């Protein structure tokens, strides 16, 4: 697939510290990564390693303490319309209809009412949601709400889509459908996607490349290319290539999850929990 012209993310040697009261938390330290224009890249890693922090810095919601964070050659300081964001929580406006939710970003861009209705309806049609344009968010299933969230992020034609565990709250079947819808929309729009997930198979199915982060303070432990052809199909998940990549990722993440749990125990975060690291991973009892 030819790459898009824009949507290039570069992070170099980034550190993010949080201070609350007397406590300083180094969330990530020495993170370097890139997303090429039009590329689909995922980040996986143990809980608390700083995945959301990385995404929030690129989105402009959180400031890096040091290091380079550039989108198309410009240092990121604040949110921008060229970066759409989708969170696990659906974050739709409950008092607005589906169509009004989708039109919202177009309105803030100053698009006239009749045009934004046409654009919103076109996108809702692509996502199979046109019949629900006048529904309100609480009348939709979780999967539908998240589809609206994705449409809302894409309708303003961003060059980058930042997604923080967008399908984490969905059941397994809905998740598979959502992965296909996302892949279709991504291929149609040729945008860059940075996608955070805990789900190894989801990362392999969707991505051109996957970054694995270390336990906190997070940095990049490994980077794997996913050489599976596109379009990806469910049958590929039984292929030897898929299984080999899955095994590699499982091993990398398991090492870091064990380290992350060890740190929590050492710092008293899991008082009363006795835990042993056995050949099959951590085994504990309360
Ligand atoms: N605003 C904040 N203030 C203080 N500490 C924070 C803040 N945001 C994140 N942290 C801390 O930074 C570390 C990284 O958090 P982050 O949410 O980025 O991890 P994560 O990898 O996305 O976790 P998970 O997979 O569990 O969602 C954690 O120790 C977290 O407690």
UniProtKB/TrEMBL annotation:
Q: Name one GO molecular function term.
A: ATP binding
Q: Which UniProt keywords apply?
A: ATP-binding, Cell membrane, Membrane, Nucleotide-binding, Transport
Signal peptide (UniProt feature, chain positions): none
State the CDD domains in the record. Answer: ABC_NrtD_SsuB_transporters
Q: Which SUPFAM superfamilies match?
A: P-loop containing nucleoside triphosphate hydrolases
Query: By its UniProt entry, which SMART domains does this protein fall under?
Result: AAA
- Pfam families membership: ABC_tran
Q: Where is the ABC transporter domain?
A: 11-240
Q: Which family does it belong to?
A: Belongs to the ABC transporter superfamily.
Question: What is the protein name given in its UniProt record?
Answer: ABC transporter ATP-binding protein
């Amino acid at each position: 697939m030819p790459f898009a012209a824009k949507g290039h993310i570069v992070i170099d040697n980034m550190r993010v510290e949080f201070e609350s009261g007397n406590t300083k938390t180094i969330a990530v330290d020495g993170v370097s990564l890139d997303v090429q224009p039009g590329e689909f890249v995922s980040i996986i890693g143990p809980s608390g390693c700083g995945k959301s922090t990385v995404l929030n810095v690129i989105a402009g919601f959180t400031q890096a303490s040091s290091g380079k964070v550039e989108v198309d050659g410009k240092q990121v300081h604040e949110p921008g319309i060229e970066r759409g964001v989708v969170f696990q929580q659906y974050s739709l406006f409950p008092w607005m209809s589906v169509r009004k939710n989708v039109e919202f970003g177009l309105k803030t861009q100053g698009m006239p009412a009749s045009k934004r209705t046409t654009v919103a309806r076109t996108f809702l049609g692509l996502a199979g949601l046109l019949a629900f344009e006048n529904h309100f968010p609480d009348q939709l299933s979780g999967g539908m709400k998240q589809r609206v969230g994705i449409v809302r992020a894409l309708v303003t034609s961003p060059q980058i889509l930042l997604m923080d565990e967008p399908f984490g709250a969905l059941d397994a079947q809905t998740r598979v459908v959502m992965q296909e819808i996302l892949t279709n929309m991504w291929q149609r729009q040729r945008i860059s996607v940075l996608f955070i997930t805990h789900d190894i198979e989801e990362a392999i199915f969707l991505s051109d490349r996957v970054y694995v982060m270390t336990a906190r303070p997070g940095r990049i432990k490994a980077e794997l290319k996913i050489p599976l052809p596109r379009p990806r199909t469910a049958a590929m998940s039984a292929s030897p290539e898929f299984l080999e990549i899955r095994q590699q990722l499982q091993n990398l993440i398991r090492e870091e999850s064990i380290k992350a749990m060890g740190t929590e125990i050492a710092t008293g975060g899991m008082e009363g929990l006795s835990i042993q690291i056995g050949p099959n991973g951590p085994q504990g009892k309360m």
